[in-house]
From TrEMBL:
Keywords for the protein's UniProt record, in alphabetical order: Membrane, Transmembrane, Transmembrane helix
Protein name: Beta-lactamase/transpeptidase-like protein
Beta-lactamase-related domain ranges (all copies): 104-463
Regions that span the bilayer: 31-50
Lineage, uppermost ranks: Eukaryota, Fungi, Dikarya, Basidiomycota, Agaricomycotina
Amino acid sequence: MDSNKTPQHDALGYAAAVNQQQDRSRRKKQMLIGLVCTAIALLAVAWHYGVTVTFSMSISTPKHHQSFNSNTKLTCRFPLPNLLTHSPPLYHEELKKASKRLDKYLSKRVLDDDIDSIAIAVVTPAGTVFERGYGVLRPNETTAQRRGTIDANSIYRIASVTKMFTVLETLILRERGILNWDDPVEKFMPELSYPSYGWSDYMSGNKLTSYTDEMPPITLRQLASHMAGIGRDYPPKYHINWPNTDSPPWDSPLSLPVSSESLLSAIAKYPLVNSPYGYPVYSNAGFDLLGLANVAANLNASESRDKEPQSHKELVKRDIFDPLGLNSSFYRMPADSSLRGRIAIPSRGHGFTDILYTDASDPAGGQYSSLADLITVMKTFLSPTAKSGVVSEHVMREWLRPIHEWTGSGSKEQVGAPWEITKLPDNTPVYNKGGDIDGYVSLFSLNPQYGYGLVLLATGNTTVGIANKAFNSFQPAFETILQEQVRRAYVGEWVDYDNTAVVSIIEGALYLEKLVVRGVDVLSLVQGIKPDDPKTKTVPVALWSLNRRGEFRLAFGPPGYPDLEGCLRYWAAIDRSYGKGAPIDVIYWEGDELVYPSAGVRFRRG
């Protein structure tokens, strides 16, 4: 399983670069926390309109007719519509520049002593915009021919990226009606037990008197998101003479091989680290248990158990590897010499190339794969239709969600199932699964908001800086391309005789700046502002992109508070009123026309 290294965090060091500046801004806001009267007044108004409010102390004193100027802060910035998943860019000047920058960096980086090889790709639903191999396949060989080269078909141990496939298998079985996310594990594995006692009682031998309340069930969802409270590695690693040791704790050998019996025995013996749904505790043992539960659930649902997969590796092969054509993905060193000859071997830690995993330990980190296979998986995950994938597009939307958020010290990190989620400086979430085992480092990162992902496989001791450089190179390019597509599709003045609408990109988000219908200034009307008062100014209204392409909701919010910070007031006010059979806050593009159906108006570009 993984060591304590977390390459996924390095992958998004790009996001950390601005944290200090944001913290200073946050502290300034907190200094105004004494404005209790303002908060109470806002809360009263929010309740009146059925809106939940969170308070940020840069709010002005509320008045129904409030004056604004051009410096009014626009809040609750909604992401631009993700056109890149529907029209993925493969050839664009910005992508060429980004590729050149990254290639130059990686060509030098692979020469460092801590890296033997790198296989890397930046992927869109339509294919790769960057795909390279660097270094050598077998660095300890003496001739160039035997050392080999790296390409998309080179095979690596992917360590904990395996967990992503284990959760994917759970979702596949759920969609077939074989199990549910919130099924207790005991439904499929009645032999599972876990204690209610804590460490004080365990160490004193008084294991039955500490807690009398019945323990809550451990569910499949909890296992998939590290929320079950089960410890990291079972059976645990031991340091006999701790702390008198010459090596750090994470250098102790893995507890392999693991059997299902030894895993269940350890879970039954040792106190949970935390109560289920307390906070996430990274758990290889929990994922081993999830894989075993998947197999058991599939067997229980079959009338011909002997014809069903009997292990995790067989189940994943049937449901994921074979349907997607992943011919370089497996869990045991293959007999096929052509496959064995493509396996990357690190110069240090090469013993892990073929270390024995078992059916019980495979689900947490036993998988091998290639860049080409992971590119295939990434393309299906990013596709707006999940075409050729093994789960549907709506399952992907459900899957790419956080379950826990770390809130201390301004952290932007979240945990999903099994995602390690971090944020870019503009709060764009990136869903990562990283892997790290002696000599092998892997990363699978999705940026669904911009329609691309990063796959990184390497042999060596570290990949510090590599993924960070990749995001630094390509994120600005995708931002530029997305804005270009959005401008072509939506931005500009739209007219219909004396009716006018103006759509703009402001601070990287899409806004409606003007909407006049039959002489009525709709934004002024909704915001409770007098249009003929020179001291007042309407605030642009954010366009919230929906799952339907070209359709948006106007984030009006309740009237009278257009600069109230936060998103909850907008969220709670969507779909409040209708006109002509349609919500007054809906607009959509139909062909080359902008339609405002509640007023019966169709605009064309001015």
